[in-house]
Design goal:
The chain is an alpha/beta fold. The chain has one domain: Rossmann fold, CATH 3.40.50. Helices cover 41% and strands 15% of the residues. A 7-stranded parallel β-sheet has the order 3-2-1-4-5-6-7, sandwiched between helices. α4 links the parallel β4 and β5. α1 crosses α7 and α3 packs parallel to α4. It is globular, with a radius of gyration of 17 Å. It starts with 18 loop residues before the first strand and ends in a 7-residue tail after the last strand. The structure holds nicotinamide-adenine-dinucleotide. The site of nicotinamide-adenine-dinucleotide has 28 residues, from α1 and α4.
């Protein structure tokens, strides 16, 4: 497996003065995103249901922690209010919280199907909705969601519920982009397999990718940074594949 290029790590202040909420911040892509965004000057509201992981990310980034379940609207409403008060407003949201589910369509218990849709799709929607009152007050506000190569090109048997939730995120992204323009840009990143806890036991998938390796979480964070920053000021409703070429391979 070839290795990921090492980013130079030189902060350029691309999010200086921006106040960003990141869900899933206790682990994986959300944590890598929080670290990169802090390096680029953002003040952060870190949301997750895992208090220990949240604390670790907060120590690394100086962000404020909000322990929430993204399917609980009342918890989110409260967290959004407290986050906006603490940071003096919210300019952006990165929806990185999510769960994986593997199981063929015929075998998926209905309760599991609902849970995957509830967390990945409805949770992404609820977080965005709860932060909207603050986003719409800011110039150049942004929401970035995380779909998946399984949503963009759902051709791997055994991922039906997950793929449906991620395909839903792609449609949600485009529908919200139309609805919230011109005040809020809404985009999503569609990663292939990423080296996080979610990929445990499946890291041998490198051959499926044109680049012959899975992604480092920092490579997804870099795409999230681009879409959140002013560099993407004319980008909305887009789905950026960050999947080592899986989508065309
Ligand atoms: N790792 C991959 O291969 C991969 C590939 C494509 C897309 N994604 C997506 O990227 C996102 C981040 O995944 P990751 O790889 O960093 O996984 P991860 O398991 O490392 O992190 C997910 C985080 O989401 C949090 N979370 C889950 N359900 C929650 C809930 N109901 N409320 C609050 N927090 C909750 C978890 O506590 C965890 O901290 C997910 O949406 C995932 O579907 C991951």
């Amino acid at each position: 497996m070839t290795s990921a290029p090492i980013a130079d790590g030189v902060p350029r202040g691309r999010l200086r003065g921006r106040r960003i909420a990141v869900t899933g911040a206790a682990s994986g892509i959300g944590r890598a995103t929080a670290r990169l965004f802090a390096l680029e000057g953002a003040a952060l509201a870190l949301l997750d249901r895992d208090p220990l992981g949240l604390k670790k990310t907060a120590q690394e980034t100086g962000g404020s922690c909000f322990e929430v379940d993204i399917t609980a609207e009342d918890e989110l409403t409260d967290a959004a209010e407290r986050a906006a008060e603490e940071l003096g407003g919210i300019d952006g949201v990165v929806n990185a919280a999510g769960i994986m589910f593997r199981g063929r369509a015929a075998d998926v218990p209905a309760a599991e199907w609902r849970r995957v849709l509830e967390v990945n799709l409805t949770g992404t929607y609820l977080v965005t909705r709860c932060f909207l009152p603050w986003l719409t007050r800011e110039a150049a506000a942004s929401v970035v969601n995380i779909a998946s190569a399984q949503g963009l090109l759902p051709n791997s048997p055994g991922y039906t519920a997950y793929a449906a939730s991620k395909g839903g995120i792609i449609a949600l992204t485009k529908a919200l982009a139309a609805e919230l323009a011109p005040h809020v840009r809404v985009n999503c990143v569609s990663p292939g397999m990423v080296d996080t806890a979610m990929a445990d036991g499946h890291r041998n998938a490198a051959a499926n990718y044109a680049l012959k390796r899975i992604a480092d979480p920092s490579e997804i964070a870099a795409a999230l940074l681009f879409l959140t920053s002013a560099e993407a000021s004319y980008v909305t409703g887009s789905v950026l594949g960050v999947d080592g070429g899986r989508a065309f391979h």
